[in-house]
Design a protein that fits this description.
alpha+beta
Length: about 160
């Protein structure tokens, strides 16, 4: 059984380890960086299976002092949004609906806080096919794209109304 709950400090080592495995698709995140992101976030939840962190989702509200190229791009264009900083599900837990469960919960959170849009990005060069399919299933649409990470990644900037 999967339990979705707020992340606590005791989860942080597991979150950092999960992120390290998917660093190419997300971005590096040390324990110190996670502590900062946790303070800035309005949504930081884990999916737990049998007392193990199987996945996590971090999202930032509009108006926080978050230095991120993609977050800043949305901030210049959207008056109200919730930005998905990252979602990661451990490979051994793939196919169990964990990512979808986190997104359904995030959408409910956004609606309950009257947030009009959820935003995110995924890599299109190099292409992340799984992320593209996942986000299409949730109704995300491309609203722009940009090169990031010193020109090493092209991302598709995505948004969906809540």
């Amino acid at each position: 059984m999967t339990i979705l709950r707020d992340a606590i400090h005791a989860d942080f080592d597991s979150i950092v380890k999960l992120n390290a495995i998917e660093e190419q698709q997300t971005s590096p995140m040390s324990l110190e960086r996670l502590r900062l992101l946790d303070q800035l976030s309005s949504y930081n939840k884990v999916a737990e299976i049998e007392n193990e962190v199987a996945g996590f989702l971090l999202a930032m509200p509009v108006g926080v002092s978050y230095e991120n190229e993609n977050y800043n791009w949305f901030g210049r264009r959207f008056p109200s949004f919730l930005y998905i900083d990252r979602i990661v599900v451990g490979a051994e837990f793939s196919g169990r609906g964990i990512g979808s469960g986190l997104y359904v919960d995030l959408f409910a959170f956004a609606r309950s806080h009257k947030i009009k849009a959820i935003t995110c990005e995924y890599n299109i060069n190099p292409l992340n096919l799984a992320s593209r399919a996942f986000h299409r299933n949730f109704g995300f649409k491309e609203v722009g794209n940009q090169w990031v990470a010193n020109g090493t990644k092209l991302v598709s900037l995505q948004s969906v109304e809540t």
